[in-house]
Amino acid sequence: MKDDNDIITTDNPLTSAQQANLAALLDAMIPADEDRELPSAAELDLVTYITGQAPEFIPVLALALNSFEEPFAGLPRTERHLLVEEFSKNEADLFNALLFHTFACYYQDDRVLVGLGLAPGPPFPRGNEIEPGDLSLLDPVLQRSQLYRSIVD
Amino acid sequence: MQDTVDVLIIGAGASGAAMAWSLADTRMRILCLEQGDWMNSAEYPTTKQDWEVQQFKDFNSNPNVRGLPTDYPINDEDSPISVVNFNGVGGGTILYAAHFPRLHPSDFRVKSLDGVAEDWPVDYSQLEPYFNQNDRMMGVSGLSGDPAYPPKQPPLPPIPLGLVGETIARGYNNLGWHWWPSDSAIISQPYQGRDKCLNLGPCTSGCSQGAKSSVDITYWPEAIRRGVELRTRCRVREITVNEDGMADGVIYYDADGVEQQQKAEVVIMACNGVGTPRLLLNSRSDQFPDGLANRSGLVGKNLMFHPFGIVQGVFEEKLDSHIGPQGCCILSKEFYETDLSRGFVRGYNMQITRGAGPVGTALQGHVAGIIPWGEGHHAAFEKRFDHVASIAILCEDLPEEHNTVSLDPHLVDSDGIPAPKITYRMSENSRKMLDHGLARGEEVMVAAGARDITSAGPVRPAGWHLLGTARMGDDPDKSVVNSWGRSHDVRNLFIVDGSIFVTSGGVNPTSTIQALALYIADTMKKNLANLFD
Hints:
heterodimer, A: about 150 residues, mainly alpha, 7 helices, elongated, B: alpha/beta, six-stranded antiparallel β-sheet, 12 helices, about 20% strand
């Protein structure tokens, strides 16, 4: 008889147990910050993002998520952090790859951009305003004599 | 076989475009073959939510990482600096930062002034009208009055300094050192049908606004209106020669990988400092067994990069550093001209650049061990994002014959053409120069009020400037082309890209590459009646 956790009930390529472990892992990587109004990385749809960017990583990730034993997802934050730290050392390449995708997915999410005080969406066509700058700062430079070497053939 | 054309230009980048536009005056039949595609600005990363990640993939500046069908592989394992480029209409100008300083007058006279390398067979005053013409064609923003240069008048006002520029400028002022708003090939005002810069940030992944002056939107539309034909997805395998030892055309592969032949009266190479020697070395024949135009043995020799270092400082105050033209802000020429008391000959440019976007900040911060994952993540990110300014140290690299572009014995591109191999060692002079620059950059950061200052160099993925591999000169034994780009060995073969640089100078070379191309085009036009004499 199959464990319920092994049944894939949606388009999500991860089992529900793997999803729970991933959420706990992501929450350990980037937890929510209420004061800054920033979500936890677990709130993002990272699986869909990775499926679009690097689908070959999904089965590798799925396998790695199986290595977390229950009740990893239900552990207090500090205990989870220790297990993730251990995982980051034992599976350094995989962890760094996951971190790359997580940071990329997180910092291009509109909720995060707004939390950082930025406008949502891509930079174009919105554009940005920057300070023109004070060109009177050049006054001391203009006092200087010629800096380039003259050439006399 | 196609009809014979009068002029065949290989490569549609910075120099090929300028050449095509200028030669169009002659009403000759001019054809340009380009191995890449036309770009579509609506597809550039900044039109997309995942704009920062795109820079790691299809818009990566390293062709070995990008790996597009239009790219060719480069073996750069034997070099501490890897080659970066772009293949398409516009060439390197699609991904360049558009930092647009000229070489200095002294750069053309290094042997006479400093006793190193060779003097150029042309000088600044000869190129000056072409620098000015190119500034107008490209649309260059800047400020006149810089004491580090002979007088010049950029056609457009400088791009905004922003808080980054102001902050670092104060640091330079505190030290009493030179700084100046950068000449930038980015339009600060509407210009010739193009709208002004929107301060999107990442110029180095293509400009969606069209404010960055890449040649696909400056020279090429004009050249095509004037009758030049530009054929894309045509990868040249070799230049062919006739029994008289003159170039008579090329063999290339079209978009379907089918071999084609194109005959021409004149062949002009504009393939950059790696692509040009690669093609010449691939063009072997009984008459030229060591590669075309290589009787001097110097094709592929004297490769120069600009060894590049970076100093970063984190500031207490917010600098809005992720917006505005990333590579264009201010520069300093305080250490550009030779002063032997510094322990090295020649000098370097200091280029102040703006900071990374949110994804780049997080990733760079993590790699540097500054932004952790976990509980401390948000606080560390907040301290860094939009609070960073950088100073790039760009060193003059002197020519050394052991730094080479050769043909890799095994590696080939998708059409089976042998790929280039880079062999490069950074000289002791460059090392001392870079160390000096990094230390001075740190001083500027301190003077500007930065905390958490870091510096590193040479940066590996920084081989933007590919120079010297088919250098110009009057002596056929010591150079590949003459003072107006014509091969000493093959009198209807011209080279106009960065490979003809005799020395590298210490600045981004595109402005000088294009001025040289315009100068060569003009010289050809003046000598049409006896072009091959």
